[in-house]
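Late entry, evening session. Most of the bench is empty. Finally got around to the prediction I had been postponing all week. Sequence below, unchanged from the version circulated by S.P.
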Amino acid sequence: LLIAALLVPCLLFGCNPNTPPTGTTPEETTPDVTTPPSTPEDSLFPLNPDGTLTLSNVNVVGGDSFAETYAAAELCFYLTKKGVTLSEVGFPITVTIDENVASNNFKIEANFSGKNAGLAIVGGPDSGVIYGVYRFLEKYAGIRYFTPSLELCPEGDIVIPSGLVMESDSVIDARRLTWYPGYISQDW
């Protein structure tokens, strides 16, 4: 009689000996929130759900040449205008010249995982490195440069993707700085 009382519910409702009883949960449940597959598991920096990174705390390092230090200083200036904190433990950003890159060209790459995590702005020996910094700030920070006295720096986050962020192969070797009649500026 006892066996029949135990077997009747199994026959009526189905019985799986590995299923926990109703009303209880197994202790091995997985959380509802999972890491997206595009997120590197060894990332040292908190990534957005879509695998991008929001710059909030950075460490900008430039090379020893005048062009590298100037480009790094400009990057720091505009990043702080956007509210990004500069510190030695922040997301590393390097601004360097590569003699193998054509003079006005640049390449920007981001890596979010491992010990090589960081953003690299690499430019040619002439103006490539500063063009890379300004183009990065235009595209990802929304900054617009119109004249030395008119720039726009909108509020908002700077969000970058992983991998090749941007690349430029300039086709113009010379630029004329006197575009406005009577206006001559060494900075522009």
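Two things to note before I forget:
The longest strand covers residues 91-97.
Helices lie at 2-13, 66-81, 128-141.
Will write this up properly tomorrow.
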